[in-house]
Amino acid sequence: TQLLEQSPQFLSIQEGENLTVYCNSSSVFSSLQWYRQEPGEGPVLLVTVVTGGEVKKLKRLTFQFGDARKDSSLHITAAQPGDTGLYLCAVLGGSGTYKYIFGTGTRLKVLA
Amino acid sequence: EAQVTQNPRYLITVTGKKLTVTCSQNMNHEYMSWYRQDPGLGLRQIYYSMNVEVTDKGDVPEGYKVSRKEKRNFPLILESPSPNQTSLYFCASSRTGAGNTIYFGEGSWLTVV
Known about the structure:
heterodimer, A: 112 residues, mainly beta, 11 strands, B: four-stranded antiparallel β-sheet
């Protein structure tokens, strides 16, 4: 099974700080998704990136897909307490399968 | 409102007592799947279904069964639950399996004692 490794696993920062979360694999993917999960709820899609090198912005969140389509990063500028949650990257398993693989997750806590 | 509904949300059961977690979506999605979420292991796919009567194993199918007799429903069956199946379970759906947005249910907390 292909692995999606996310780092860091945990992150606790003060409001207003910047942070970057990483999602890495040794495999190439046709697309990659980022989800955020809040306590007691299911994950919610933030973005899908499909092109190597692609950068997408969602307000204070910037997503980048690696040139080789093996990795991705999520950068949050001026984090706010509302950004607190579990951030997950996800890909289709590839090789003709429709299995979804999720990363291990980064649990972010933004302190006011 | 577009949603994925799963029941029960919370369940404590005993080892060996068969149980079914229901899942229903109202978006006419072809693709449905089940996941379990465990601390340190993330979200792992149990089974998925590309359409009615088409199901396939995910990464952790052992101990689970599914069926897809209707497009909107995708129940998860634990024939003989064991304590290692204690977990948070999510049902999800998407328009197709090809990288579309996945919509998740609110989760079902299952404890097997």
